[in-house]
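Reply to dn_fold:

You asked what the input looked like. This is it:
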Amino acid sequence: MKLKSRLLENIVSLFVLQGANYALPLLIVPHLVRTLGPENFGRAALAQAIALYFVVLTDYGFNLSATKKVVKAKGNPDELSSLFINVVSAKACLAAASLVAMALFATFVDALDKDYQLMAAAYVAVLGSSLFPVWLLQGLQKMRAVAVITIISRMIVTILIFTTIQHADDFRKAVAIQATGSLIAAFLGLAMVPKIVKLRFLAPSFRSIVAELRDGWHVFLATAGGALYTGSGVVFLALVAPPAVVGHYAAAEKLIKAVQGLISPISQAVYPHVASLLLSSKEDAMRFVRKLLKFQSGGMLAITVLLFALADPMTTLLFGSDYSESSTIVRIMSVVPFLVAINNVLGAQVLVQLGARKLLSLSIMVPALLHIALLYPVASIAGAIGVALIAVWSELLVAALRFFGIKRLHPEVALSLWGRQSGTNKHESCE
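and this is what came back:
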């Protein structure tokens, strides 16, 4: 009962957290799209999309790979201290490399027009993300603390956006304010760590840092691949279309991502729970994952139907009449949250937990590479509509690769998940 109570508390905390991450920004977006206009909103969205690449780089999959190690090391302060300093050091190195890379983007991407101020503002989000020890707090199942921190930072951002962003030329300031929220959260999170767990200061070990990077490599490939096909639409569209078209697409994409963000609190809360179940019983863990799959995909299917049916009034209400073109994009992408719900469970709760690293990487990198290869020509020919269709196709391909990969390489897991015999290949691992 205590375990279930902790799980419920973490899920509720993470829903509150997600409310701060997505509901509050959804309050901000209508103000920004109306104030900045499609053109400058498109420019801001491009800088944020590029910054997202480097947020993923600095996260490096540690929210999964390091979190699992935290679960196992809970009762060992020395092991936790060593893990903490090595992961933080690895993220700091990646953040430094990200600064150089983002400066190069500003120099060589024509759509950015050497706007170093805009990219510097966007980089603050990378720095904040690299410092926020959410992976540690998640592994310790202290997500209430993360929820409180995130709500505080997001509320500060929301107040600043409404009080200071009043003109179309304020788009750089808008990016800076939104990015600063993650930096505030990071400082609050680091300040809270000593109150939750006693860590000793240890000098980082180069060999251990490399080992952490190596351990997280396959998870990083999966998350990086995901960032490529979920965050590149705005970037590639900006190469061939005017900023106003980018703004229409970015507004629709933000709505879709806000909806699929409802998945994150459930996934983050149950991840350490599934890891704990696997330590005692693989069968119990997969039985729990099967229930999660039904609940998560069923809920998102209902939301998908609503998004498709109400796309026109929803976009007009949120973004205004200047963004009427966004409704078609919302309708096309309405199926994405449903597909993401399935892919999330099969990825984070099955492949990562079972250590099926190669299948995890394959199921992301193949769609991601095909996505990138097709984006430019499709965007050139079909514009924002083509980019939206590619986004749907990529999620569908991820689902297919994971479904058939689990069916072939983990038939006993497939049997637990969808309840029928699924092939004759009895390999225990896809390694």
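Residues 1-215 form one domain.
Hope that clears it up.
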